[in-house]
Amino acid sequence: RRSSDLNATNSPQTVSVVLNVLAAASSHGVYVSTGGVLLIGTAGSSTPVQQAVGLFNASSAAISYSASALTANGSAWLSLSPASGAANAGANTVQVAGDFSKLSAGV
Question: Are 63 and 99 in contact (CB under 8 A)?
Fold first, then answer.
């Protein structure tokens, strides 16, 4: 979809839209409510930095989920809590945490 405003300096804007039409009896799944996670900290710091990521279950029944953190360097400095469980109907959250004590400057 393309949206424009003649008075805006950043016009036009393009927005990607994904539409998934399911059968009435099927589960809608869990929706993730973030466009990204930004964790900022100091290399070697022992204070973990966290950000909540919202999960929304549009179904009336709990849906099991599993999530994992993958890093470019393969180290375990990024974690999710809880990494698996049941997303109940409505809003749920998962915490994304960065352990900067395991990173060197420039990463």
Answer: no
> pLDDT by residue (tens digit) across 49-83?
899 888 888 888 888 888 888 888 788 888 999 99
- Tokens describing residue 90: 């409505």
**pTM of the prediction?**
0.68
88 bridge partner residues: none
List of residues 6+ apart from 41 with CB closer than 8 A: 47, 49, 98, 100
How many C-beta atoms surround the C-beta of residue 57 within 10 A?
Answer: 21
Distances (CA, A) of 30 to 1, 22, 74, 78: 24, 13, 27, 22
